[in-house]
Design goal:
This protein is α/β, with parallel strands linked by helices. The chain folds into 2 domains: 6-124 and 236-352, D-Maltodextrin-Binding Protein, domain 2 (3-Layer(aba) Sandwich), CATH 3.40.190; 127-221, D-Maltodextrin-Binding Protein, domain 2, CATH 3.40.190. The chain is 40% helix and 16% strand. It has helices at residues 6-12, 14-18, 33-37, 61-68, 71-74, 89-95, 106-110, 157-169, 185-193, 206-212, 225-232, 245-250, 252-271, 274-280, 290-300, 314-323, 343-352, and strands spanning 26-27, 48-53, 79-84, 101-105, 115-120, 127-132, 149-153, 178-182, 199-203, 216-221, 239-244. The chain has a 6-stranded mixed β-sheet, with helices on both faces. The protein has a 5-stranded mixed β-sheet with strand order 8-7-9-6-10, with helices on both faces. The longest helix is centred in the C-terminal third of the chain and has 20 residues, at 252-271.
Length: 354
């Protein structure tokens, strides 16, 4: 565990902002949380460390774009991305001072008062609820899910929040279905195809794969703004870039540089074509199926915000969704203003005309 206290950590961090050396952004291999925490931030090397979970996931594509296209480097930043394997590990690594920034769902930042989001990546949950055409061929309405098994991603609250809201809108009590955690995307696809689950609440590329196979019927689609509005009443913030409030206050110029790089990437994504994505994304992120990744990208394009700004109603919508689940220590509605700032993204938007 890194032993320096908060004041020492922030003081040493000045080297990140003032250091003149710039090297190409790096991506470290996935690390278990204990390994990440046991690898203290070497601030004297002028690195800015960002932690993330499941880096190859489509939800984190803006971060990959900013790194791969040299946008961090263009802002004078030397960025290392650490992929942490455990659920919630990316946030905990920053709390343990093993990294400076976290790229994670906004809902995770809401569970701690010490963090603030400053660049929003996605303005919808990117989750789809669908039913099996095999086990529920006569599906007509949500009540048809009574007594059925619904697959959700293990350890992630967003899929649960979406399906709970869909059930509530359809007048079906959660106790009348069984939520079945799926360890990974492969397990989710197999469980759906072999009939072990009758429905699913999951992210891409799982959903797109099942759609292309003709085995899934979409019930609710929060990959789009319209779908998010139908389920939650408006845009619901998902993945964002955040940092401890003290760090943002201490190093506003650094945070502005990071914001500029990310908004540049978000703007690029608005018009990026298939060939652009192929050039920007590492082959390993395609997980052996480039066509599936690209098909899922097109379905998710609208989810990414064009300018990094948090919608004014977004935090309250996210809080209401989380309140439906088992999340603890949620802020009061009047405290939501502390959970994010648009100051950096607003300046980035003006600079890049995003």
């Amino acid at each position: 565990m890194h032993n320096c206290d908060r004041r020492q950590w922030l003081g040493l961090s000045a080297g990140l902002l003032l250091g003149s050396g710039t090297t190409r952004a790096q991506t470290a291999p996935p690390l278990p949380l204990q390994t990440a925490i046991a690898t203290p931030v070497r601030l004297s090397s002028t690195r800015l460390v960002i932690t993330v979970e499941q880096r190859p996931a489509l939800a984190y594509l803006p971060l990959t774009v900013a790194q791969r296209l040299g946008y961090f480097e263009a802002e004078g930043l030397n960025v290392e991305v650490r992929d942490v394997t455990e659920v919630g590990g990316a946030l905990r690594a920053v709390q343990a001072q093993a990294a400076h920034l976290v790229c994670a769902p906004f809902s995770q930042l809401l569970t701690t008062s010490r963090f603030r989001a400053f660049v929003l990546h996605s303005r919808t949950p990117q989750i789809v609820v669908g039913v099996s055409r095999k086990t529920l061929p006569q599906y007509r309405e949500v009540s048809d899910l009574a007594g059925r098994r619904i697959g959700v991603q293990a350890g992630h609250s967003t899929g649960r929040a979406v399906v709970r809201r869909v059930l509530e809108q359809g007048g079906l009590d959660l106790a009348r279905v069984e939520l079945v955690p799926q360890a990974n995307p492969f397990a989710a696809v197999q469980a759906f195809r072999n009939g072990a689950i009758d429905a699913i609440s999951f992210a891409d590329p799982v959903i797109t794969q099942l759609e292309l196979l003709g085995e899934l019927r979409v019930v609710a689609d929060t990959r789009t703004l319209r779908g998010s509005t139908e389920v939650f009443g408006g845009p619901m913030p998902s993945v964002c870039l955040g940092a401890p409030i003290d760090f943002i206050a201490q190093f506003p110029r650094l945070c502005q540089a990071v914001s500029d790089a990310m908004v540049h990437a978000l703007k690029w994504l608005q018009t990026a074509g298939v060939s652009d994505i192929i050039r920007a994304v590492p082959e390993s992120h395609f997980q052996g199926d480039r066509a599936l990744y690209l098909a899922a990208f097109e379905r998710m394009r609208e989810s990414w915000t064009p300018d990094g700004l948090m919608p004014s109603e977004g935090p309250l919508i996210a809080l209401r969704a989380m309140a439906m689940g088992d999340d603890a220590a949620l802020p009061e509605p009047q405290e939501l203003q502390r959970s994010y700032t648009n100051d950096f993204a607003r300046r980035s938007k003006a600079r890049f005309r995003a």
